Amino acid sequence: MEQIKRRFETSFEVIRSFASSGIAIGSRAAGVVIGFAMQLFLARILPVSELGTYFTVMSLALVLSVVCTVGYPMLMPKFVAEAAKSIDPTHLNAFLRRTRIDWALASVLIVIAAIALVFSFSPAPGVLQYGLIIGILTAPFLAALRLNGSLANALKRFALGFIPDLLIRPALFSLIVVALWYFAGFKDVVSILLIHLVVTVGLAFWQYMKVRKPVAQVFANSKNENANVLELAGTRKRAAYLLIAMLFISVIGELAILFSSLLLDSGNVAVLAICLKISSICGFGIYAVQQVAARDTADAIVAKDFTALKKLLLRTNLAGLLVALAAILFVFVFGETLLSYFGQDFIVGYTSLLILMLVNLFAAVAGPTLQIISVIGEEKRSGMIFLASMAGMFVFNLILIPTYGLEGAAVAFLLTALIWPVSLGVLIKQKIGLYPALFAERF
Predict the structure, then answer these.
(1) DSSP letter string over 307-367?
(2) Spatial CB neighbours of 313, under 8 Å, sequence gap ≥ 6
(3) Could you read off the pLDDT of 64-106 as tens digits, one per residue?
(4) What angle do CA 147, 207, 375 make, to 5 degrees?
C-alpha cells in the first residue's frame, strides 16, 4: 500500500511539473505569436526609420531591465526554499526588503545615467531621443516584472510568475495599439512606446499586489518568531555575479548578431537573426521546464537530499530533452517552409537553423546548471565562466566566419553554448558531488 502511495505521489509530481511547464511554454508561445504579428503590423504602418527606432528602444529597455534586477531573480528560489525548510520567513523578509531597495537604487542610477548619455550623444530633440528616454523609463518596471515573477515562481505560483510578462503585456499592448490605429488612425512611434510604458507600469503594479498574498501566507505560517535574521552580508556581491549570468543568457543572441555583423554582410546577418529568434523560442521552452523545477531543486539541495535531487534532475532533463527533440524534428521537416515566410532569401539559413537547434538539445541534456549555481553559492566562478564564454564566442566567430560564412556563425554560437554548461556542471560536481547532466550520473 505504501509503495502504491509513493508511485501515485511521484506520478502526480510528474503531471504537476509538465502542467507547470505547459503554463510557461504556452504563455511564451502565445506571446511570441502576438509579438511577431505586432512586428508585422508595425512594419506596415510605420516608416522604416521609425520601425528601427522601435526595435532599438525595445532592445535597450530589455537589456537595462536585466541590469535593474541586480541579479536577484536568480537568488530567489534559494531564499524561498530556506524559508520553507526552517518554517520561518524572517530571513526571506530581509532578502525581499534588500531586493526592493537595491532595485529602486539601481533603477534610479541607471535611469539618470542612461538619460544623461542620451542627451550627451543626441542633444537635439527628436523621435529617437524621445523614444530612448521612454525605453529607459520602461526598464525598471520590466525589471519589477522579472523580480516579482521570479518570486511567484519560487512560491510555485507559475501562472502569476509567467503570464503577466510573457502573455498579458504583449497582448494588451498590441490590442491597444491596433484599436487606436483602427479607430483614430493612430501611427506615431513615440506614442506607441508610451503605450508600452503605461501597460508595463500597470502590469508591474498589478503583479506586485497579487504576489503579496502568497508572500503574506508564508509569513503567516511562521512558527519561530525568535529566529535569527539570516546574515545577508555578501548577498549583493553574489547577485552581482549572477547578473553577469543573466546578462549573458538574456543577450547572448544579440551578442552573436553583433559579433557576426563585423564579418558577415547585412543580408546574412538578417538571416542569422531570424534563425536565432526561432531557436530561442525552443530554448525558452527548455528554460521554462528547468525554471519550474528550480524551487524543488533548491529544496533538495538545502535539505541535502541527493536521492530526491537525482530523480528531480532526471525528470527535468527528460522533459527538456523531449521539448528539444520535438523542436528539432519540426525544424528538420518544416524549417525551409518556416524560413520562406520571412522571404525566399531566408531559406539559405536552413542549415544554420538546424545547427542552432542543437544548442537547445545540449542545454536540455546538460541540466539546470544555472538554477543550481544560484543555490550552491558559486556565483563568482560562474561569472568568470560567462565572461570567458563571451570572449570565446568572439574568437570562434573570427576563426569560423571567414571560411564557413553563415554556417560558421551558427557553429560559433553552438561551441559557445557547449562551454558554459559543461564548465558550470564541473563546478556543481565539485561542490555537491553530483553532475547535473542527464547521463553523467547513475539514477
Answers:
(1) HHHHHHHHHHHHHHHHHHHHHHHHHHHHHHHHHHTT-GGGGGGHHHHHHHHHHHHHHHHH-
(2) 297, 367, 368, 434, 436, 438, 441, 443
(3) 898 999 888 878 877 777 766 665 567 777 788 889 999 999 9
(4) 30
pTM check: above 0.90: no
Can you tell me which residue has the cell 544579440?
254
- Give the pLDDT confidence of 256-277 residue by residue, as tens digits: 776 777 788 766 777 787 788 7
Q: Are 298 and 375 in contact (CB under 8 A)?
A: yes
Cβ–Cβ < 8 Å for 255, 393: yes
In the Cβ-directed half-sphere of 290, how many Cα atoms lie within 13 Å? Answer: 26
In which residue are the cell numbers 502568497 written?
A: 214
Q: List Cβ neighbours of 271 (8 Å cut-off, separation of 6 or more).
A: 345, 346, 348, 349, 352, 406
> Who contacts 238 (Cβ-Cβ below 8 Å, separation ≥6)?
71, 75, 377, 379, 380
Give first-to-last CA distance, the chain, whole Å. 24
